[in-house]
Amino acid sequence: MRMPAVLNLFGRSPPAAVSAVTAKSASPMKQGIHSRLLPPESGASAFEALYRLRRRLCGGQTSVVAASSTADDWRLRVVEYALPDCCDSRGSDWQPEDGDTLCTAFTDINSRFTFLFAVFTRLHVGEDYIVECLALVTRRPGFDIFPALLRQLSGQWPVDPVLAISQQLATSVTMGQPTGHRDSQLPDTGQWGPARELSDRLGRCSDTLLYLLTAMLTERKLLLVARRLDRLTLCAFGCVSMLYPFSWEHVFAPSLSAANIDHIGCLVPCVFGLVEALYVTNRAKVDANFADRDFALVNLDSGDLFVADGAEASAEQLGLPKRLVRAAKRSLSRSRSSSAPGDAFSQALLRVTVELLAPIRQQPAGSDFNLDAFLAASPESHRAFLRRLSGSQLFREFVDRYLAAGTSESHYEAFNRAADRLLASRQRKRAIVNLPRNIGR
């Protein structure tokens, strides 16, 4: 069967190093991304496992020089992602550079996240070039903490590296829940790692950014592709963080390995990440997905967006109100020149969801959601999109959690402040419009 042509929105052929993967259906995430971060237990270790790996630069078998594990044996998975034998599972052209860092994430059967952070060092031993890797497995999303710490420690190999690094981690890493910026799109995941990376990659591609946001709001299937695995994972988390105060309720795998490439054909909404080297040998599986009009691929390195021929190719075509699109583009453009670009970038996207959801602040905590009242309190230009949005699982889960949480839930503080400001502004504008005219005598 002939597959539909791929529409290139930027006038170039699809990138030769892009990749697509989809996983088989999984149970919806009833608590969203926020609850998939395990809270730290009192006295818990800062990490699950720590490995020092080594292999020849040109390939060969990876050896475990030292290891420490406080939980399951992570060796096979860490080697597969951090320093695979013969480079096969990262593509024949993938080689870690000296000082490179890696970040990726795994999900367990309960969809809880575990993170892998690694740093690479190149050594010249005799006539061989050797790659060493210090890899840490942890439940904590220390996007800003762990890479810097591992880079610092990688050049100071002690006699017993695992023991010394374990001790330094225990004293260097805050054992409490990470807090992050008070207005972070994804609270409790460190200081802007994901949002900052997404801003760096796509900050100048507002059309692509707003398409991604609207595609997630309308529960589509997204594949993100990047050359670097750490960039891919951070951007995947940055993408789902754009939904705040919503939370992605469907399949989410920020990085897929060679072992699960064959999980193509997902029948439910999904957000996947795939390092581009794997696409070189799996392009046919990727292209087959363009038979589905709900499928879209984004190259994070170029900002290019690819959809099936005839499918919706912009946020406006997906139904996001034109006024919101124009305002968001202006805000994103201004964020690039801000003294705090990460904050301004996140706030520009937060204004989109606040514009859509602000009237929910007028519904009593603990009450059943009143869709008619919500729509009546929303601008007329928003109502068509909101009616469509209200039928999604993402929307239903949000309103149920939000109204049940009341004002005590700190997760919604940033949204509540922004929504209250917007509602007050709308009220002032209505008051001005309704002022009696001064008719001269």
TrEMBL record:
Keywords: Cytoplasmic vesicle
InterPro entries per record: cDENN_dom, dDENN_dom, DENN_C, DENND1A/B/C, Tripartite_DENN
Subcellular location: Cytoplasmic vesicle, Clathrin-coated vesicle
Coiled-coil residues: none
Highest taxon above the source species: Eukaryota
Molecular function, one GO term: phosphatidylinositol phosphate binding
UDENN domain: residues covered: 47-410
GO biological process entries: endocytic recycling; endocytosis
Keyword Lipoprotein recorded: no
One CC-aspect GO term: cytosol
UniProt keyword Nucleotidyltransferase present: no
Main location: cytoplasm
PANTHER family in alphabetical order: DENN DOMAIN-CONTAINING, UDENN DOMAIN-CONTAINING PROTEIN
Protein name, UniProt field: UDENN domain-containing protein
Species, as recorded: Macrostomum lignano
